[in-house]
TrEMBL record:
The keyword Membrane applies. Residues 190-417 form the ABC transmembrane type-1 domain. Belongs to the binding-protein-dependent transport system permease family. MalFG subfamily. GO terms for biological process: maltodextrin transmembrane transport. It is a multi-pass membrane protein. This is Maltose/maltodextrin transport system permease protein. It holds the Pfam family BPD_transp_1. The keyword Zinc does not apply. The lineage of its organism: Bacteria, Bacillati, Bacillota, Bacilli, Lactobacillales. Part of the ABC transporter complex MalEFGK involved in maltose/maltodextrin import. Probably responsible for the translocation of the substrate across the membrane. InterPro entries: MetI-like (IPR000515), MetI-like_sf (IPR035906). Keywords: Cell membrane, Membrane, Sugar transport, Transmembrane, Transmembrane helix, Transport.
Length: 427
């Protein structure tokens, strides 16, 4: 049998499909050549104009819609990237297949052999391919559009189709950090976002671990009843709970000020005054942290309960023989076992609360008062973004820039913690 020249086959595959045809793989060659032809036709009919529209974002106001052009152009850009990946795979496939044939290895050549190969070796790829296609439209496309929007002047003065959007580079990031008004607002909102994330997430994790450990002790009776009670905050829809707490913490008619505090004053030596939960920024933030602790601990409780049941009792018996105290048992046996399994999940609690929009919005709409730039005293970054895009003077470009900063922070912190906790090394 005549030996194939892998380099010649690779050069032939610069036109997708020709290299495969040279290797005798007629079915694969026809498919690859068909994909190439479809891409060329798509570029001629739609793709080239879509990419031009992405660059210009329109030339005539009232006729061209800059956002539509951006979305179409971004989609075409992704399609082009996918084709380039296919192109590289096509070239490598032609060379690798030629080398395999020269070594005497059988490769699928007919339609039947190719279908049989896909049904066996390629089945996982066929199964996951639709998910990847769906991910392009539901995740990657919106992320790319948001990324691009951060570098435009998309605001209340430039709303298509009445006005065109233009590329302005890093101006939105410059304004955020250099303009005194936005810089002060970003600093205040970001600072509270960090405090909120650390305090609220830590509180719910501590409560969840504490309740799980206590309920796991042998001397506790009625564990099933406690389990049901601890799960109640999780069973009730979060928005219902938040709205209820908004009424409970009402300054003038809420149960905390009208019933709970007067009741406590009957027994405490120190008089507790009524607290301005909804009108004082400090107490609003305290209330938000306490509410999130209540809402979030059931999930941690369930998680930790499962982990505790997997810890061998022999470890505790050996520790008892050695004279270990309950605190020492917790520090050296229980807590390490919990963190070894649940550390990545705990990280997700912090990242979730960093972007926990619902509780901030539903409890007090980010109030009371404001810190400038359209942000309230209890707004976190994600709720500030909402106000920037839904207010009377929307700032879509600036909101997109803040979104990118949030994403960068969350991704960086998550990757760092996952690496330190060896989450990626777990089997």
């Amino acid at each position: 049998m005549e030996k194939l020249n892998p380099k010649k086959t690779m050069w032939l595959s610069l036109i997708p499909g020709l290299g495969q045809l040279k290797n005798g793989q007629k079915a694969k060659g026809i498919i690859f050549l068909g994909i190439f032809a479809l891409f060329i036709i798509e570029m001629a009919v739609f793709g080239f104009n879509a990419l031009v529209g992405l660059v210009t974002l329109g030339t005539v106001a009232g006729r061209d819609h800059s956002m539509f052009l951006m979305v179409r152009g971004t989609l075409q850009f992704l399609v082009t990237i996918i084709f380039l990946m296919f192109y590289i795979v096509n070239v490598r496939d032609a060379r690798k297949t030629a080398e395999a044939i020269n070594r005497g290895k059988d490769v699928p050549k007919t339609w039947k052999e190719m279908c049989d190969s896909l049904a066996t070796d390629g089945f996982p790829y066929l199964l996951t391919f639709p998910a990847y296609i769906l991910m392009i439209f539901t995740i990657i496309l919106p992320v790319f559009v948001t990324l691009l929007m951060a570098f435009t002047n998309y605001d209340f003065n430039h709303i298509p189709p009445a006005s065109l959007i233009s590329w302005i580079g890093i101006q939105n990031f410059h304004d955020m950090f250099m303009l005194s008004s936005y810089r002060a607002t970003f600093g205040a909102v970001f600072g509270w976002t960090v405090i909120w994330t650390l305090c609220a997430s830590t509180l719910q994790i501590v409560i969840g671990i504490f309740t799980a450990v206590v309920a796991h002790q042998d001397f506790i009776k009625g564990k099933k009843i406690f389990g049901i009670i601890f799960l109640l905050p999780w069973a009730v829809p979060a928005f219902v709970t938040i709205m209820s707490f908004s009424n409970i913490f009402n300054d003038s008619a809420g149960a905390i000020n009208i019933q709970v505090i007067p009741f406590l004053n009957h027994f405490l030596p120190v008089h507790i005054p009524q607290i301005s939960w909804m009108t004082d920024p400090f107490w609003t933030k305290v209330a938000l942290i306490m509410i999130q602790g209540w809402l979030g601990f059931p999930y941690i409780y369930v998680l930790v309960t499962g982990i505790l049941q997997s810890i061998s009792e022999d470890l505790y018996e050996a520790a008892t023989i050695d004279g270990a105290t309950p605190v020492q048992k917790f520090n050296h046996i229980t807590l390490p076992a919990i963190l070894a399994v649940a550390a990545p999940t705990f990280v997700t609690q912090y990242t979730f609360n960093f972007n926990n929009f619902s509780i901030i919005y539903l409890f007090n709409n980010g109030g009371p008062g404001d810190v400038g730039g359209g942000a309230g005293n209890s707004d976190i970054l994600i709720s500030w973004i909402y106000k920037l895009t839904t207010g009377t003077t929307p700032q879509y470009g600036l909101a997109s820039a803040i979104t990118l900063i949030i994403s960068a922070i969350v991704i960086a912190v998550s990757l760092f913690v996952f690496k330190k906790s060896h989450a990626f090394d777990m089997d």
